[in-house]
Design goal:
Mean pLDDT: 88
Helix content: 10-25%
Strand content: 35-45%
Strand order of the largest sheet: 1-4-3-2
Number of helices: 2
Number of strands: 8
CATH topology of the largest domain: 2,3-Dihydroxybiphenyl 1,2-Dioxygenase, domain 1
Amino acid sequence: MGNATAPTWAAVNIQSTDAAGLADFWAKTLHRPVLFGITADTVILDVPEGEAGIQMVFHQVDAKPAGNAGYRATLQTESHDEEVSRLKSLGASVVEAAVHGPLQLTVLTDPDGNPFNLATIHA
């Protein structure tokens, strides 16, 4: 492998027919600041100073791409039911909910229909 440094996550890129609206949903969901991108058709959610994480980059497209190539974000919370309610009030929809031992998992979709997980690990 030599002396090369391994790459790290920098951003996740999401195509949308309403990039600004979808960025607004995720900004409110994650309590992140919105930055305007390097082009007029790009909106970025930045990582707040002093926090770890990756940027989310939203690209405006004319037609929504099919599928999600197997990628699905997972958010973790300690207040599962309250967070599900908050996400629904922002425009998310619940697809399914399950408990697997100590793991409580809810699959939701954002306003563009992209699935994501909300997970809570109970002691």
